[in-house]
Amino acid sequence: MRIVVIGTGYVGLVSAACFAEMGHHVICVDTNAERIAQLRAGHVPIHEPGLDGMVHNNHQQNRLHFTTELRPSLANVDVCFIAVGTPSCANGAADTQHVFQVAEELGKYLPSSCVVVNKSTVPVGTAERVERCIAEQLALRHAAFAVPVASNPEFLREGCAVEDFMRPDRIIIGSADAQSAQVLQSLYAPFLRKNPRLLMMGRREAELSKYAANAMLATRISFMNEIASLSECLGVDVESVRLGIGSDSRIGYDFLYAGCGYGGSCFPKDVRALIHTSQRHGLSSHILQAVEERNTIQKAGLFIKLKLQLGYLEGRRIALWGLAFKPGTDDIREAPALQLLESLMHAGAHVHAYDPVACANVAEYVPKQWLDSGQLTLNAADPYHVLERAHALVVATEWKPFRQPDWKRIAACMDKHIVIDGRNIYDPLSMQQHGFVHVGVGRGIAHSSEAAALTNAA
Ligand code: UDX
């Protein structure tokens, strides 16, 4: 098939590369000329395991192309994916302006009928509105064909996006016509050979499924974070509770890890968008509002724990391991580490941070004077280097090499042996044996009532 993918963010670029990998002819279109030039030169602008090689090979073999020009790309196209960003507006609603800009252009320039598929995460009813928007433009130029619009939400996780796309848990196709249902079924058939879970439904149902899936996962995390706070007050280890409830097959183990809060480009934005949709329909979104509130409190937790351990933070040297919102990515959107950095900078602490891939994004994001003054240093080369004379180590992202570090070497580097374990990757007992004060999340720590009071005040 000839496929056009509009938008070269995570979803667009991964989808395009994976479709090309299956033998299709794919053109990626983006208005960002710099990004397109980078991609043409063989540079993939995001860190995503397996993506570089796949983009490079398919580009070399003439199956994957990059351009800023939508109109010429649409000749003989069979399927056109919309995969542009839908960021949060100030009121929490999803901003769909880019989706509708694309719809208008498709209506103006499509030379013949094709299936338009919306992959962006969009409010319920958007596929219908996109279809109407295209139809209006087609009518203006008296085009003698119609363009059906389907909804095909994407569930890939950053850090394993290629793997998720090639071997999905399920594919959801929301359609209102036989042509798009049939085209998409055949397009996805090779991805579903091992696990043939293709779910056909209406477009509105597909759109809400995407939001509901992310909101459900975020709810599990916030729920566990709340149980973790309670565990701290009760002297309970939340890790045992996680195993205790995860072993119930009705609950399962996934997404039950307490930690320093969820970040990323999806959960925070999608939870807010769903709250906004509920409110617009006169409903109070009690559960999701609590999920979001809990996450805000949770992100403040790292700073509170540090303060409790060190008493004051001005002039303290803090080592920070991990800046990305999760391992396997250089994405720092809504990362808990960013909130911690801001609090530490305001408190006058000095932070020496290590992350294998996210430093460049942080350097672009933070105020320049933090770096110029040396109050913040970023290191992508050596996790041990940032520990020199540190008063505490904070782990904000569970990168694999952090899991079993050389504790003797760490103890020799640091001034104080305090580890704030924001991802619960260390065993409290063995940390004690290594001679460290270990503060995890929900691991039955002392100072519990003080911590609870501060958490509630945050
Ligand atoms: C998520 C969804 O998983 C994916 O299906 C959707 O398409 C996009 O949003 P992603 O944001 O890439 O994917 O990462 P995910 O692995 O889901 O983690 C999101 C956040 O939750 C991270 O900050 C992670 O650290 C946190 N998390 C995850 C927890 O705190 N505890 C958990 O148990 C799991």
TrEMBL record:
Its EC number is 1.1.1.22. NAD(+) binds at residues 30, 35, 86, 121, 158, 269, 333. It comes from the Bacteria. It holds the Pfam family UDPG_MGDP_dh. GO terms for biological process: polysaccharide biosynthetic process; UDP-glucuronate biosynthetic process. Substrate binds at residues 155-158, 210, 255-259, 263, 326. Residues 319-428 form the UDP-glucose/GDP-mannose dehydrogenase C-terminal domain. It catalyses: UDP-alpha-D-glucose + 2 NAD(+) + H2O = UDP-alpha-D-glucuronate + 2 NADH + 3 H(+). The active site is at residue 266. It is an enzyme of class 1 (oxidoreductase). Transmembrane segments: none annotated. One of its GO terms (molecular function) is UDP-glucose 6-dehydrogenase activity. Pathway: Nucleotide-sugar biosynthesis; UDP-alpha-D-glucuronate biosynthesis; UDP-alpha-D-glucuronate from UDP-alpha-D-glucose: step 1/1. The keyword NAD applies. Keywords: NAD, Oxidoreductase. The keyword S-adenosyl-L-methionine does not apply. InterPro entries: 6-PGluconate_DH-like_C_sf, NAD(P)-bd_dom_sf, UDP-Glc/GDP-Man, UDP-Glc/GDP-Man_DH_C, UDP-Glc/GDP-Man_DH_C_sf, UDP-Glc/GDP-Man_DH_dimer, UDP-Glc/GDP-Man_DH_N, UDPglc_DH_bac. NCBIfam families: NDP-sugDHase. Belongs to the UDP-glucose/GDP-mannose dehydrogenase family. This is UDP-glucose 6-dehydrogenase.
